[in-house]
Write a structure and sequence with these properties.
- By secondary structure, the chain is α/β, with parallel strands linked by helices.
- It has one domain: Metallo-beta-lactamase, Chain A.
- It is built from 6 helices and 14 strands.
- Strands 6-5-4-3-2-1-14 form a 7-stranded mixed beta sheet, with helices on one face. Strands 7-8-9-10-11-12-13 form a 7-stranded mixed beta sheet.
- The protein is globular, with a radius of gyration of 16 Å.
- The N and C termini lie close together (5 Å).
- The relative contact order is 0.16.
Length: 226
């Protein structure tokens, strides 16, 4: 399994030959100026919620690649009106089977509205089960006891957790979230892009380390093996 980070909450996971892209927000992000959005290939695009900083490049990528969209019903419907029909809607607790494994839509505590003001449904995260290992993508969320349910049903290898504070969990709550879902390897998301979510990298890594958890903060454009 390979993980490539494109900044903010956007990353690509290569699983058993499938390219799975999460929350594509690249071209408006000045920190990702060196990323060529048009060179990104995807077989699936998974969207956690409708905010601009999670969907900005989704339409263009979906239309160019023909990737299958997986998101909540409202987001799938919104993109359907834009001509994107290769899609699988989910709602909380629901799952679907894909070429790379099982995708389950799980709870997140946040808000959601699409860029034109359309209601974006309730936000969520994803639990992904694959032959190469299982992982959790929190999306934008506060700490919630629902995370304990994930550990009860799925043995995870790693998790991508929001850590930037202000609009989502901060580092302290993300450390607790990692413990709740039962992982000792975390990749941080949703930090540094805007002034309110600037992260003290050294402090964050140290806080996770003190809890016996490895926090990885990859550079934008970096690919790591998982």
């Amino acid at each position: 399994m390979k993980f490539t980070y494109f900044g903010h909450s956007c990353f690509l996971v290569e699983i058993d030959g499938c390219r799975v892209l999460f929350d594509p927000f690249i071209s408006p992000n000045p920190l990702a100026a060196d990323i060529d959005v048009d060179s990104i290939e995807a077989d699936y695009v998974l969207i956690t919620h409708g905010h601009e900083d999670h969907v900005a490049d989704a339409e263009a990528i979906l239309k160019r690649t023909g990737a299958k969209l997986i998101a909540n019903f409202e987001i799938v419907t919104w993109y359907g009106a834009k001509g994107i029909e290769n899609a699988q809607p989910l709602n909380h607790g629901g799952s679907c089977t894909t070429e790379f494994g099982k995708v389950k839509f799980v709870n997140a505590i946040h808000s959601s509205v699409l860029p034109d003001g359309t209601y974006g449904g309730n936000p969520g995260g994803f639990v992904i089960e694959t032959n190469d290992g299982n992982f959790y993508v929190s999306g934008d969320t506060a700490l919630t006891l629902d995370m304990k349910l994930i550990a009860e049903s799925t043995k995870l290898t790693w998790a991508a957790l929001c850590i930037g504070d202000t609009f989502t969990m901060g580092v302290g709550d993300a450390v607790r979230a990692a413990s709740m879902v039962g992982v000792d390897y975390v990749i941080g998301t949703h930090y540094d892009t805007f002034p309110p979510i600037m992260l003290d990298h050294e402090n964050a890594v140290g806080m996770f380390h003190n809890a016996g958890i490895r926090l990885r903060l990859p550079s934008i454009g970096e690919t790591i093996e998982l």
